[in-house]
Design a protein that fits this description.
Helix content: 40-55%
CATH architecture of the largest domain: 3-Layer(aba) Sandwich
CATH topology of the largest domain: Aldehyde Dehydrogenase, Chain A, domain 1
Radius of gyration: 23 Å
CATH class of the largest domain: Alpha Beta
Strand order of the largest sheet: 14-15-16-13-12-18-19
Number of domains: 2
Number of helices: 16
CATH superfamily of the largest domain: Aldehyde Dehydrogenase, Chain A, domain 1
Strand content: 15-25%
Bound molecules: 1,4-dihydronicotinamide adenine dinucleotide, magnesium ion
Length: 479
């Protein structure tokens, strides 16, 4: 594998201070792709110092917004110029189909930089009518050093969602990318240097959560932590961040309901149910992992869904025709298979049984459980794999109660031809995103984030600017 494997600190790629490395694996072959330098507390400290120095340096601090804008645009261009390579690296490191990496992850990452390039010159203050003889106005300023901690399911894209708005606002960043998939984040760091960002504005420090991640969250000179990952670690991060009262934003897990009414276009709904759970191997925070079907169309919908799902077989992620790749790691495969066993024990009907495919690579076949009770663990807990729980409902009130009956609130979808019903439901569902006759849509322009235990704060769109800037109120006496 070509591409950087060392830590990026202060503009230079270097070994970790301990000299230690860890392997990253191709989950489709179980072969080691590369040995990656392992950041630990002293490396995190060095990266934070570099980010602080870059934040205070005039090359970044005094850079006109329009110049920052051009740099962000350039990063977007470099992502697209290297799209084939980045997609290949993403697929080899994560196991997702090349079709997804090349046509979703990589272009969406570039679009996120293009979108926030436009914001750089539009981050403005206000003048506010206050009583007395004063001029009052606001300044919108960066926080300083942002610690960015990302997971392995969209390794490049989720870095882009955080880094692009952080840079647009004038922050500097330390990226603690996921230990399972460090390759594209390091390559992105290299592209940031190539684009001409001043040294130390972007630092990339792969390492483990308990060591590198925790050190970043605890570091007294980090101003803000932006995290995507599990709800359990999100809670841990808030506890650790409390000591230094860091600003924290969290994008966490989900158990999103995909709701199908009898009056929907059932072919479209079946396709939406299929893509909702099997896209990205189901390792997607907003996966439609609970299918809630109006009882009268249950059998017809299941027939259509099963017809599609039976044809879906895991395959070589590098084959452009593959639509279901390998799960990211042996641990994730074991977790998912554990839930498939649990579903059977809990008494749900395994209408598509799932299970491991082959002996090499972490491939798991699609699983669908019917007659799931809302109290079952497979209806409550995030599985993060190609496993669907199917529940039924008779009327809208019962549906709303079931749909909102988990600790999560990331996303929901409604399939119906009744426009008023769809919009009324959009108001009653406890979710940060609601799709109507669609699934999985996200875009740099539109806010994304969680209700309830799915998180804090909204990423993307103009809301992304709020996450990476703070407001100062300035009073001027006119006497
Ligand atoms: P995780 O939450 O442990 O890892 C996400 C990131 O947090 C990684 O970069 C990791 O190194 C870091 N991290 C872990 N512990 C930390 C700590 N104490 N302090 C600071 N950083 C820390 O997720 P994991 O273990 O990889 O996956 C477990 C489950 O989490 C999955 O099966 C899935 O259910 C959920 N998950 C949800 C994601 C989402 O997009 N909402 C993404 C990844 C996982
Ligand atoms: Mg890997």
């Amino acid at each position: 594998m070509d591409g950087p494997t060392q830590l990026l600190i202060g503009g230079k790629f270097k070994d970790s201070l301990s000299g230690r490395t860890f392997p990253t694996i191709n989950p489709a072959t179980e072969e080691v792709l590369a040995e990656i330098s392992e950041a630990e507390e002293p490396d995190i400290d060095a990266a934070v110092k570099a980010a602080r120095a870059a934040f205070n340096h005039k090359s970044w601090r005094s850079m006109p917004a329009r110049e920052r804008s051009k740099l962000l645009w350039k990063i977007g261009d470099l992502i697209m110029q290297n799209a084939d390579e980045l997609a290949l690296l993403e697929t080899m490191d994560n196991g997702k189909p090349i079709f997804e990496s090349r046509y979703v992850d990589v272009p969406s990452a570039a679009e996120t930089f293009y979108y926030y390039a436009g914001w750089c010159t539009k981050i403005e203050g206000e003048t506010i009518p206050v009583p007395g003889n004063f001029l009052n106005y606001t300044l919108r300023e960066p926080y300083g050093v942002c610690g960015i901690i990302t997971p392995w399911n969209f390794p490049l894209l989720l870095v882009a969602w955080k880094l692009a708005p952080a840079l647009a606002c004038g922050n500097t960043a330390v990226l603690k990318i996921a230990e399972e998939t460090p390759i594209t984040g390091l390559r992105l760091g290299q592209l940031c240097q190539e684009a001409g960002l001043p040294d130390g504005v972007v630092n990339v420090v792969p390492g483990f959560g308990e060591t590198a991640g925790r050190a970043l969250v605890a570091h007294p000179d980090v101003d803000k932590i932006s995290f995507t990952g599990s709800t359990a670690v999100g809670k841990e991060i808030m506890r650790t961040a409390a000591d230094t009262l860091k600003k924290v934003s969290l994008e966490l897990g989900g158990k999103s309901p995909n709701i199908v009414f009898a009056d929907s276009d059932l072919d479209a709904a079946a396709k939406g149910a299929f893509n909702g759970i099997f896209y990205g191997k189901g390792e997607v925070c907003n996966a439609g992992s609970r299918l809630l079907v109006e009882e009268s169309v249950h059998d017809r919908l299941m027939e259509k869904l099963l017809e599609r799902a039976r044809k879906l077989q895991p395959g070589d992620p590098l084959n452009p025709k593959t639509r279901l790749g390998a799960l990211v790691s042996a641990a994730q495969m074991d977790k998912v298979i554990g839930y498939i066993e649990l579903g059977k024990k809990e008494g749900a009907a395994p209408v598509l049984p799932g299970g491991r495919a082959g002996n090499t690579g972490f491939f798991v076949k699609p699983a669908i459980f019917d007659t799931v009770d809302p109290a079952m663990r497979i209806a409550q807990e995030e599985i993060f794999g190609p496993v669907l729980a199917v529940l039924t409902f008779k009327d809208v009130d019962e549906l709303v109660e079931k749909a909102n009956s988990t600790i999560y609130g990331l996303a929901a979808a409604v399939w119906t031809r009744d426009v008023a019903k769809a919009h009324k439901l959009a108001q009653r569902l406890q979710a940060g995103t609601v799709w109507i006759n669609a699934y999985n849509m996200t875009s740099a322009e539109s806010p994304f984030g969680g209700y309830k235990q799915s998180g804090y704060g909204r990423e993307l769109g103009k809301y992304g600017i709020d996450l990476y800037s703070q407001v100062k109120s300035v009073w001027v006496s006119l006497d």
